[in-house]
Amino acid sequence: MSKALLDDVVEHAYADAPLECCGLISSRDGDAVQVYRTANTAKSKFKYVMDPREQLRITEEIEDAGLALGMIYHSHTRSDPVPSETDVNLAKFGDSDDPAWPGTLYLIVGTKSAEPDLRLWSIVGNTVEQVTLEVTD
């Protein structure tokens, strides 16, 4: 992921603090291409909810551009950027352990201090694994 795209995500996280932010990141061949900021309709310090119509519009825009949904991002304003039980459940399709967004990674930005703490995760069912976040110039 480029530093410029990552900076956009971090700026979004701090701009929305103390509320959690959320958004989507498109990719091509595993490389992040564009950040799509979305509103957290929950307006909460503890969880995020994307407007389904906005999420659908963005995912259609991503697909129409021949890209993939590479990452879903949000912030944790009071805790470490580790997926919560709520985060894990949001990554599932309904009540099943099937992924809601197969192949999509989850970027969490910790904003509890002045320096952002960024961690990337693979969440499939109840299996949560940290993934290396590679940043390029």
UniProtKB/TrEMBL annotation:
GO molecular function, one term: zinc ion binding
Keyword Transport: no
One GO term (biological process): proteolysis
Keywords from the named record: Hydrolase, Metal-binding, Metalloprotease, Protease, Zinc
Lineage of the organism: Bacteria, Bacillati, Actinomycetota, Thermoleophilia, Solirubrobacterales
Pfam families according to UniProt: Prok-JAB (PF14464)
Transmembrane residue ranges: none
Highest taxon of the lineage: Bacteria
Domain JAB: 3-123
Keyword Zinc applies: yes
Protein name (Swiss-Prot/TrEMBL): M67 family metallopeptidase
InterPro entries associated with the record: JAB_dom_prok, VirAsm_ModProt
